[in-house]
Amino acid sequence: MRGMESLSQLLGRLALDLGAVAVLTFAVYFPRHRRRDLLPAYLALNVALFAVVAALARVGEGGGMALGFGLFGVLSMIRLRSESIQNEEVAYYFTTLVLGLIAGLPHLPFGIAATLCVLPIAVIYVADHPRLFARTYRTVVTLDAAVSDPEAVRAHVRARLGEPLAWSVAEVDFVRDVTVVDVRYRQERRPAPGHRAPVPQVPARMRENAV
Prior knowledge:
Elements: H1 2-33, H2 39-56, H3 63-76, H4 87-104, H5 110-127, E1 136-143, H6 150-161, E2 164-173, E3 178-186, E4 204-210
Antiparallel strand pairs: 1-3, 1-4, 2-3
């Protein structure tokens, strides 16, 4: 009888975990970022952590210590060094970890677990909302010239993108004659037809990523 009760609690928490991570990935993440390749990673990481936590928490009196060492081992194996993963996507990674951890703890009351699962989803929903700072961008500008004068760099950025919110020179290569500038800027309103801002005589190649 006690085993059946424990099994029903486990299935209830598994349903909570799957429901929470489904909302996070399919209702929040994918409609905004459209990266299908990360969906299996999020789901597998979440369910795997839930299984590890649920198993370690039921190993007896030493479960607490085993749980701590087990979680340390699981988290230490995670490597998020791929340059193709943006910072906001790393936030989704850690949110899936938190959901699996909270839902898998058997001694945490179910109502509190459900509330704590809703909390990070609500936070990331608001923090990553497309309308929040929608006109603020991050751009890496590569100049085909080694420019060391800060005012010259600022003039080029201002002519191309408008007055920058913040910028820093990431690299000045006098051998390849290249300057790389990391710029944060706000997209201004479109100028009137026929209007063109003066551009310094320094060609540039740019690639943009919204913050």
